[in-house]
Amino acid sequence: MNVWLQENSWDEVEVLKEKSGGVIVIPVGSTEQHGSHLPLGTDTMVAMMLAEDAAKKTGIPVAPPLWFGWSPHHMVLPGTITLRPEVLIEVLYDVIESLSKHGFQKFVVINGHRIVNIPWMQISAERAQRVLGVKVVLFDPAYMSKEIVPQLGYGPVGHSEEIETSHMLYKHPHLVHLEKAQDNPVQKHELYSVDPAYPGDTLCYVPSTIKDMHKSVDAAGGTTGIPSKSSKEKGQIYHDHVVDNLVKVIERLKI
């Protein structure tokens, strides 16, 4: 079964909709710098590969990915594209509205861009539920992997760190240039921690600034974390764990 909506004809989509019980997945990510060793599309690719593997296991379709997110702090390096939150709210809402008119009523929006994307996604999802009468679930890999991350020996969530790098080594090794990776360990902050895998998580979020990112660029080419600890094997364990959790969410919606 080809799960990607854009690779099916309209009548094939009709069949997919009936088989899925009206459930569909929407991958959302970003196009932004991920150090010298990972591609700009890493966040979107993360959402896509989770969506695809879970969809194949559950028989549901996957909508075309949204390749853009809110990334103003990453504009310090070439290739980054950032959209205003108000634009992103409207884009996601319009995608959901369009699909709802064709009979899809339950949406799983996979966020590959971590906490930065969550605020505008929440606003869009709330409006879609209130206005369109649909069900929208936001699935964030960072929160759905908190059991496995410490077991793999990963450090705190950073940017293009060992979590993202291992994941990409497993699914897209040809796009990873580990020889270019630079370590830049995440610094501990007394108040600021948004890593659900660690007991010190405070849910206290301080948005990164251009000044902050310049420091990251100077230190390690835009990386925060320890990508040298990455491995394909760990990436597979991580991926399978998150996919299993995503499958559980989808199966609950299909009831």
From TrEMBL:
Sample GO molecular function, one term: metal ion binding
Cofactor(s), names only, from the UniProt record: Zn(2+)
InterPro entries per UniProt: Creatininase-like_sf, Creatininase/forma_Hydrolase
Keywords per UniProt: Hydrolase, Metal-binding, Zinc
Domain of life: Bacteria
Pfam families listed in its UniProt record: Creatininase
GO biological process: riboflavin biosynthetic process
Record-stated family: Belongs to the creatininase superfamily.
Protein name: Creatininase family protein
Source organism per UniProt: Thermanaerosceptrum fracticalcis
Lineage: Bacteria, Bacillati, Bacillota, Clostridia, Eubacteriales
